[in-house]
Amino acid sequence: MSQWFHRNPLKATDHVKFELKGILSNDKASKICSELRIRRDHFIEHLASASYDRQMLEEEFNEYLALFGGFVRPPGEEDADIRSKLYSVLRFRWTNSMLGSTAVEVSEAYFELLSLCLNMAIWYTKHAAWLAGKDEVREGDAKMCHTCLRKAAGIFAFVRENCGRLSGASDIPGSDFDPKILLCYETQCSAEAQEVTLARAIELKHAPTLISALANETSMMFAKGDKLLESLDESVFGRWRKYMQLKGRIYSAYAYAFLGESLLAEDKCGDAVRACQEGVSEFHIAEDFCSKYAKSPGPGFLAQPDKHLFFRRVEPLLNRHLEKAKRENGFIYHQKVPEVCPELDSKANFGLAKPEPFALPKLAEAWTTASYAAFDISKADMPDFSKLKKSSKDIPAVKEEKIYQTDKDPSNSSGCVIS
């Protein structure tokens, strides 16, 4: 695929001991807490590697959520609004992906649950970047990259729809529970999944009208992501915004390139010339954003997007169509080049990526009426479970393994080997 993706840091968290000595009345309750501590530690440790086995991490994620579910709702209770008696017995601390080591904390089980979900979604985006950055991306890798991005989008959507359960969750601008941030993550993942679809459409030589419409839809999604971030602190969100702006302009240039090709096929050479000229203009704006991205402040993986093949192939494509349109127009058609550029199709009928819906796993079998009763909260020293607030304790950033990104050019248009 020869794609390049900007990636933000994982959320960091304090170790949770699940020590509830005064509450545990038998070995069943003790075993649940012991397993929760071990499973949480393993899952968080493995998140640091984008190349970790996806199926194993998904299994660890689901197993932890299923076992932790007893702290969220009572066994046998399907109503999500009915809280477990254990809902507030533990205090959890997490950082936000974009706000450095400053942590927030609250004594609410749903805070832990949603924070774990967010980290899983962020890992999916990093795993997708790792798949796309291989020396040779096979068709199965491209499909899994597409799937991971749709799964991530689905989790971000789930958190956005449920974070209202946390008191004060959206009070911190730029936090991971800020609706703008969640929608931006979701939009970015859907747009990047469409990039994978677009690469395949180019490789399989689909109709230029379809490719143009899909490229334009993708461009508009990145523009939407940029709009969602515009009111936030530039010193923190500047690099993420520049990524959105850069990708938006690149895919606008692609859209005009394939619009020009389709107009050429219809012998509308004057319009084709104008469309390609507009594409060249968009490409030059994207070039400017490449340098701005590299100099922009904020967290996230820093790369050189202008060195990537998906960027470098736009200009030759535009120039090829532009030269052909001018040549045909000069020799045969003598059509006037309009001042107003032909409109792009803004409603692609195929290839649009939708988030894959996410649902919480069922409660683990360890949670029975007897095991739930074994937690005696009458003996608990209940912590303050006031609304989400800034913690007095900072948490160091996760030491993430660097995501490998190939510097080799693929031998075909999309970079995806179709077998």
From TrEMBL:
Domain of life (superkingdom): Eukaryota
Q: Which SMART domains match?
A: BRO1
In this chain the BRO1 domain maps to 9-419
Q: Give the matching Gene3D superfamilies.
A: alix/aip1 like domains (1.25.40.280)
* One Pfam family in the UniProt entry: BRO1
Instruction: Write out the similarity annotation.
Output: Belongs to the BROX family.
Its recorded name reads BRO1 domain-containing protein
- Species of the source: Steinernema hermaphroditum
